[in-house]
Amino acid sequence: MTALGTITGNYEEAKAHLREWGFCLIENPLPPAKFKELAERLTELAEAERQDNSAFLYDGGNQRVFGLLNKGAIFEEIVQNEAVCELMEELLGYNFLLSSIHANIAGPGGARMALHPDQTFARMPWPPYPFVANSMWMLDDFTEENGATRVIPGTHLLGRPPDYAAGEGDIETQPVCGPAGTVMVFDGRLWHQTGANRTKDRLRHGILVYYCRAYIRQQENPFVAVEKDVHDRATPLMRRLLGWEIYQGALGQTGGLPT
Ligand SMILES: O=C(O)CCC(=O)C(=O)O
């Protein structure tokens, strides 16, 4: 048991948590050595972007590292992770797409983020299912002190974002904690935020692998933003996730219907 949620290796149980709470926690979908490799690569990238002044720094101590598909083959591996993809299919249906992959590093002094669901781009009314869903790969232990992602369980069922004018942006949230090696999968309608990092010297490294239904526009345009060599070596699953496949014979055509 964590502060909130239950870490499980049983995907039927995880699907029940997604339905009830809007998130689930899955245990080591990859061996610990892979998480270590991810953490090392991300630390190297974040440091290099700080050094060459290209780092995206915000909220008083936090850093985003964008476009990870171009920044190491290990990131290609995690977007295709079998366990996460099974849960994404449950949330987003057949032939869902990769929307983006980037890291969010919560650093000492980093502020709590505004409370939000991920599908704020979608106009109301929302249908009774998510358009998008996210996964947070915990590369460090996520604790309340170091800025674990905070949520309000069950808000995915409200079918709307918080009403900020009515003060709902200030409703108390709870941290979703877990040891490094845990992945939180969450419904795009769930109200959540990055926690404040109240440590003196500990970074919280997390990678957000974000997916969308096959007919929703991807957050990052893969044909413009993803390097040619990544497309060239893409597996059949990766090609589908990037958006190379035609969906239901209708979307993604290049010069008419396939014969
Ligand atoms: O970093 C986190 O804990 C959550 C990030 C988040 O909510 C977002 O990027 O939309």
Automatic annotation (TrEMBL):
Keyword Cell division: no
Keyword vocabulary terms for this entry: Dioxygenase, Oxidoreductase
Alphabetical list of Pfam families matching this protein: PhyH
SUPFAM superfamilies registered for this protein in UniProt: Clavaminate synthase-like (SSF51197)
Gene Ontology MF term list: 2-oxoglutarate-dependent dioxygenase activity; iron ion binding
Alphabetized InterPro entries for the sequence: Phytyl_CoA_dOase-like (IPR008775)
Gene3D superfamilies: q2cbj1_9rhob like domain
Oxidoreductase in keyword set: yes
The name this protein goes by in its record: Ectoine hydroxylase-related dioxygenase (Phytanoyl-CoA dioxygenase family)
Lineage, broadest ranks: Bacteria, Bacillati, Actinomycetota, Actinomycetes, Streptosporangiales
